[in-house]
Amino acid sequence: MTGFPSPSDSAPIQARNVRLALGRPPARVEILHGIDLTVATGETVALLGASGSGKSSLMAVLAGLERPTGGEVRVTGLDFTTLDEDALAVARRGRIGIVLQAFHLLPTMTALENVAVPLELAGAPDPFERAQAELAAVGLAARVDHYPAQLSGGEQQRVAIARALVGRPALLFADEPTGNLDTATGAAIMDLLFARAVEAGTTMLVITHDPALAARCTRVVELADGRIVADRRAA
Ligand SMILES: Nc1ncnc2c1ncn2[C@@H]1O[C@H](COP(=O)(O)OP(=O)(O)OP(=O)(O)O)[C@@H](O)[C@H]1O
Ligand SMILES: [Mg+2]
What PANTHER family does this protein map onto (predicted)? Predict the structure, then answer.
């Protein structure tokens, strides 16, 4: 290697000319057409775009859930395109938290277990104590022994946020995290997500259709037909 590292060398997200095609011919769809995106530590990025523009697909690639068809994806310094499935799973566990529109909690586990089990799988010390503290931090100290079916939508999303953040990931990905919630509950969830992520210094990428939410981010990236068509600092 030659030269001095530029600030972007340490950027937790570095995507170069990322392409993604899914499905088999004749149903093969070209979804991402050469995405270049660098996100620096501590940035909060709103990812906007019409339905079908490729937002969730791009997030899946950056989170190591989907392999790009072409290009480079470097996440927290790791080249995701060269890792095998097992190595990717380990890399995700330690670095990435994900919150989705549908909360994806395990129905047979309590709130506490839903948050503690990923930590336990990662071999972290004191998973249940840490899960308890994280659930208290999202305002659910009194609900730790409830099953998902015994929680409201907003409470379930709080559990999902606790689960995503309990391992102190460098990156948090959220795909329409308030899409299944009423306006007031959604606003409270976003307050919580930003407060927890900013406090922990987490770099965050949030997919949203909500302009108010985008306005809270430090940067707004817009996709159309699998291409970045706008990339601006938020005011
Ligand atoms: N597994 C797949 N096989 C083939 N095409 C797919 C697959 N997954 C997604 N697509 C297509 O890729 C395009 C982008 O989908 P994606 O889910 O990334 O869009 P999005 O921007 O997240 O939209 P929305 O706002 O509706 O969630 C769509 O045209 C979709 O039909
Ligand atoms: Mg989507």
Answer: IMPORT ATP-BINDING PROTEIN (PTHR24220), TRANSPORTER, PUTATIVE-RELATED (PTHR24220:SF659)
* Contact (CB, 8 A) for 95 and 88: no
Burial 160-171 (b: 16+ CB within 10 A, else e): bbbbbbbbebbb
Q: How far is CA 45 from the centre of its chain?
A: 11
Instruction: Please state, in angstroms and rounded to a whole number, the distance separating the CA atoms of residues 216 and 106.
Output: 31
Whether residue 26 is preceded by a cis peptide bond, meaning omega within 30 degrees of 0, is: yes
- Closest ligand to C-alpha of residue 223 is 1
Nearest CA to ligand 1 atom 26: 51
Give the CA count within 13 Å in the CB-facing half-sphere of 46.
22
**Going residue by residue through the chain (235 aa), what tens digit of pLDDT does each one get?**
444 445 556 899 999 999 999 988 888 999 999 999 999 999 999 999 999 999 999 999 999 999 999 999 999 999 999 999 999 988 898 899 999 989 899 999 999 999 999 899 888 999 999 999 999 999 999 999 999 999 999 999 999 999 999 999 999 999 999 888 888 888 889 899 999 888 888 999 999 988 888 889 999 999 999 999 999 988 6
Q: Is 50 in the pocket of ligand 1 (CB under 6 A)?
A: no
Write down the pTM of the prediction: 0.92
**Single-letter code of the amino acid located at 39:** V
> 7-233 architecture in CATH?
3-Layer(aba) Sandwich (3.40)
Closest ligand to C-alpha of residue 66 is 1
In whole angstroms, give the CA distance from residue 213 to residue 124.
33
